[in-house]
Amino acid sequence: MATAIPKAFIFDLDGTIYLGDHLIEGAKESLQWVRKNNAKVRFVTNNPRYSREFYRKKLQRLGIETSFDEIITSAQITAKYLDENHQYGKIFVIGEEQLMAELNEKQINIVEDDTADTVLVSFDTDLYYEKLMTAYRALNKGANFITTNPDTVCPTPDGGLIDSGAIIAALEISTSRKLEKIIGKPSKILGDLLIQDLKENVEDCVVVGDRLNTDVRLGKQSNMIAVWIRAYNEIIPENTEYRPDYTIKSIAELPSLFD
């Protein structure tokens, strides 16, 4: 058990706070406990398909009050990063409408052919073969290879949706290239941004989530406390570099770690 209540909590959404349109048992009570103890809250999702306002309204509909500024998405962070790093040049995007909207808002130079300087891979439920082939050709010409998020599956109540990680794997195998940069979880880019935003010491910040390779890794490589929700009886592989500080079966158990 930890000895003091942290000053900031960074929560995953899908699979941690809710699954589909259903609030996970204990989520509301745990968040009430966090706010009662005057800790700061951030909700961070790797799902780039929806806006921050969408997530705010969804949480509100599920009975969780939050503000627009407490929500961070991988699409939002990716647009911010590319706006601040012009070396990526022209961008070919595998992704959906919300990601494109975030990029257009920052006036990122988007192209639709293999002259791109960078291939940005994201969650895309409208993916078709020619889009994959354009990315393939651009990568073979030496384009940078980056992603909003590396998740292979987005959790849903009926078993999940194929996510950007699976698209990345197809391009890696076909081009013999390796992904060069992740901008969303678990990247240090995101970790540093969160620390700057929260204005707290890293040892006073906690990341809570159900994914070892994104949530726990985000916390550990940014030197924050990492709480893993082991909801599916997963076993931590022996060669795992980033191990959680605490493991619980449900978000309902979170207050017991610090009370």
TrEMBL record:
It holds the Pfam family Hydrolase_like. GO terms for cellular component: cytoplasm. Substrate binds at residue 185. GO terms for molecular function: metal ion binding; phosphatase activity. It is an enzyme of class 3 (hydrolase). The active site is at residues 12, 14. InterPro entries: HAD-like_sf, HAD-SF_hydro_IIA, HAD_sf. Keywords: Magnesium, Metal-binding. Mg(2+) binds at residues 12, 14, 210. Divalent metal ions. Mg(2+) is the most effective. Its EC number is 3.1.3.-. The keyword Metal-binding applies. Its cofactor is Mg(2+). PANTHER family: 4-NITROPHENYLPHOSPHATASE-RELATED, HALOACID DEHALOGENASE-LIKE HYDROLASE DOMAIN-CONTAINING PROTEIN 2. Belongs to the HAD-like hydrolase superfamily. NagD family. Catalyzes the dephosphorylation of 2-6 carbon acid sugars in vitro. This is Acid sugar phosphatase. It comes from Pseudogracilibacillus auburnensis.
